[in-house]
Amino acid sequence: MEQKMLRILQNCKNIRELKQTHLQIFIHGLQHSDFMLPKLITVSSAFNLLDYATHKEALRVYSRMKALMVEANSFTFTFLLKCFETSQALEDGRVIHGEILKLGFGSSVFVQNSLLGFYANCSENLGSAYRVFEEMPERDVISWNSMISAYMTRGEIQSAIGLLDKMPERNIVTWNSVVCGLSKAGNMELAHSVFEQMPLRNELPEKTVVSWTAMISGYATNGDLKSAENIFNHMPVKNVVSWNAMISGYVHNHEFDQALCVFHHMLINGLAVNGKCREAINLFDKMCLEGTKPDDVIFIAVLSACTHGGLVEEGKLEEAVRFTARMHLKPNAVIWATLLFCCKIHGNGDLLNSMTEKIMDQEPSNPSYLTLVSNLSASFGRWEDVLSFRVAMRQQRMEKVPGCSSIQVGNRVMNF
């Protein structure tokens, strides 16, 4: 029966199955088995339920191991310390610390990181955790991240920044931990400084959605919606957490109309990128009928949905232009450029001149738009226009941003 229950315990797929199996272990009188309890602790650890297997039970199993002359390894102490991560278990954890040193595991980075985490979670201050960190014969990036994160969690910002400056190699967890900690503490000036130090896209490690979202939440919580919007609009990739952070920021600052507008934008954008173009347009119509005023970003999302869904047909492109002109807000160059690109997709050169004029009126010195218009003119065989645009760029000493390709070699990104 014991072997059968061990197999069932090993195959538990969720917490419900684990608790049912635990009940069967008690029914069959196997709760004191020298094999069953360690396995229960291991499975509880996999489900992050180490409070389910209490530290007293874990300590009792360890005592039985010693009595039976079963040799402990680094995993033994890692699991034990995981069970002890509450303030009530601090003294028992110190006993295990003594065992670690006595058995020669003091040089194991794996075990030392577990000790560091134990003291960071259990102690009233971080003195013991820092002593473990200082006495480590070898540290890895996890050691540094754990100590920095512990300082950030306790609000000891200067200590965290001091370690960040000394850290030999940082990964994205390091950066995110510091940015999130500073944002939560409301120190947005320092958070922005650290955020700006983060490597650019296509470098390792690069900014992730976590760091961008932390900055949005920090600015919004501190009432700086303009900076939050700026970060949000420059995010290369957004997920539902990013959108929620922006919506929550508006609600927190009592900007309910803006919160609703961002919510609609999120839905329209999500429908568009998932091929639900008709649904995106219907939602846009409903949004307008309910009195929510769309901004240019939402309008561009709708235009993109139309374009990708083939809804801006050749015969309806003029209608789209008229609709754009009737918008309550003044269309900017980005909107006209979106429509201009539709002309190329559907081979409609009749509207090229009028939309080119509108773009040039608003952004006459933008090399990206001049290049776009020049390339579109070339696709319609209007070589005189192409020449005039190229001459204008040369006279204004504007340069086209060169294209490039990138490959990763080891930990470096090479551009060519």
UniProtKB/TrEMBL annotation:
Coiled-coil boundaries: none
Keyword field contains Repeat: yes
Keywords in alphabetical order: Repeat
Molecular function GO terms recorded: RNA binding
Lineage: superkingdom: Eukaryota
Classification via Pfam families: E_motif, PPR
Biological processes per GO annotation: RNA modification; system development
Placement of PPR repeats on the sequence: 140-170, 171-205, 208-238, 239-273
Keyword set includes Signal: no
Cross-referenced NCBIfam families: PPR
Protein name, UniProt field: Pentatricopeptide repeat-containing protein
Organism: Vitis vinifera
